[in-house]
Amino acid sequence: MRIALGIEYDGAGFHGWQIQQAVRTVQETLELALSRVANHPVRVHCAGRTDTGVHATGQVVHFETDAVRSMRSWLFGTNVNMPHDVSVVWAKEMPGEFHARFSAVGRHYRYVILNRASRSALQRDRMVWCHYPLDERLMHEAGQYLVGTHDFSSYRALGCQAKSPVKTIHRLQVSRQDERVTIDIHANAFLHHMVRNVAGVLMTIGRAEQPSVWAQQVLCYKDRARGGVTARPQGLYLTKVDYPEAFDMPLEEPFPTTLIESQ
After folding, report:
1. pLDDT bracket for residue 242 (50, 70, 90)
2. Catalytic residues
């Protein structure tokens, strides 16, 4: 069987998604738990690899198994065998042509900024603190230059291994609720560090250090060296992955919307 899982995790205690030697990763943690439930080694494939410190509330993975278990057993059995900072939120049997990464047609990220004079003791690993006043209206205006299909070379990491820097941003919205500024981005796919680099540019504009058109100018440079500061990872969440309707994926609301806005 090919089974898909919805995963959420607090990235603060992990060195990112992908398995690495001698460090704690989400992939290894999940695979060890699934292997205990399946009673055989399990390898998972994810919709999007996340970096050290980055969180997920809508990560999707798939794996293959010959073990006969109910979806309830995959969900609860896996969670029993995992630490509290990572959890399976749903499980669904999928057709053989489904692939968590290659079947995805869109991904949603949210970047959360605590914009006040003092840092937060409780949210230090879940928001990025900026003590300079930010103008979220300017940030939103600047973000609209990035909507559409563009070469995002200036907004990707120097070590990005993607074959093409051309991606399509469907929606970019910057909003404020009291002391919290959020950047929501929906695109067909993302390059390595793309969201954090976009956030870095928009925060620079929000501090009035550059005009809003600078976001477009950076885009036109096609040169990461001229692309501004990479924002810290703590405020970044993978909130949702889109798939064709034929796969009938569970409809889950992006969790940080309700979690963060209720605090």
Report:
1. very high
2. 51
